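Sharing in case it's useful to others searching the archive later.

Someone asked me privately for the predicted structure of N-acyl-aliphatic-L-amino acid amidohydrolase, so I'm posting the question and my answer publicly. Question first, with the sequence:
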Amino acid sequence: MASKGREGEHPSVTLFRQYLRIRTVQPEPDYGAAMAFLEERARQLGLGCQKVEVAPGRVVTVLTWPGTNPRLSSLLLNSHMDVVPVFKEHWSHDPFEAFKDADGYIYGRGTQDMKCVSIQYLEAVRRLKDEGHHFPRTIHMTFVPDEETGGHQGMELFVKRPEFQALRAGFALDEGLANPTDAFTVFYSERSPWWVRVTSTGKPGHGSRFIEDTAAEKLHKVVSSILAFREKERQRLQSNPQLKEGTVTSVNLTKVEGGVAYNVVPATMSASFDFRVAPDVDLKAFEEQLQGWCQAAGEGVTLEFAQKWTDFQVTSIDDSDPWWAAFSGVCKDMLSLQEPHSGARDLPCLHR
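And my answer, the predicted structure tokens:
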């Protein structure tokens, strides 16, 4: 077992805080520092390290623990290095300080999404190696760039390259949500992200006049339709305790653009939305609904997709499924090893 670090902090927590301090924040992530950090982890753990530049300045880092039977397909543990932009003035602590309070809470951009998972992968491999384990299958850990901007300059390009094919990945684990209890939350499907930009064109003119058919008026109609849909989905979620967030479609207005001056009515305005479409939604009908809202707003209103997932995949959680049987079986074994005790702490369990 690893020794405690300064002030009793576990070395994995120290590594986590070091990783958080690397400013891999969009739109200008410091990927160089992140890769140097990962290369050092590979050296300390005795792992292979491969760097694959998929686009200028965009490198996928692969750490590899070879298995004893290279003929078998490998296990892939994936995480992304980049984090979303931050509004520093709304934080109680510097988002890149990795401040830890007296209760052990760590404040930092990327703590859950998803640098904690990266460190968990590394710590799991470290412990297994220290305990002398060897496995038939090779284990790869991939650290990818640009996930927060759609993965177009990261995993999307990597999977098309021979270096990815050479990994021979048979099963992969990726992003989830951190849980403060002993429960393992298992996500067996995911809502599809649709990033939509609605552009409205209309008559321009001077700001002192009541100009008809403006871009803003028509854009307002579309925004109102989409936000009404948002409220409907929110109410559906809140009124039914059986529903989870992943079973309804969420949407947020994330950007509004247009205009050149206070006293000039613009000819063009746009609004951007982040949809997360529920797995049971008819995607063709949903896109037709979006188009219908644009058409109802008037002429010159169009939409385009910055990201559009259409390939829904739902992993089986039936006991006959090999993956689910293996995963749930281990969790049940963990539960059976727990000693009976009182108190509020959860026993290991599965949330499906």
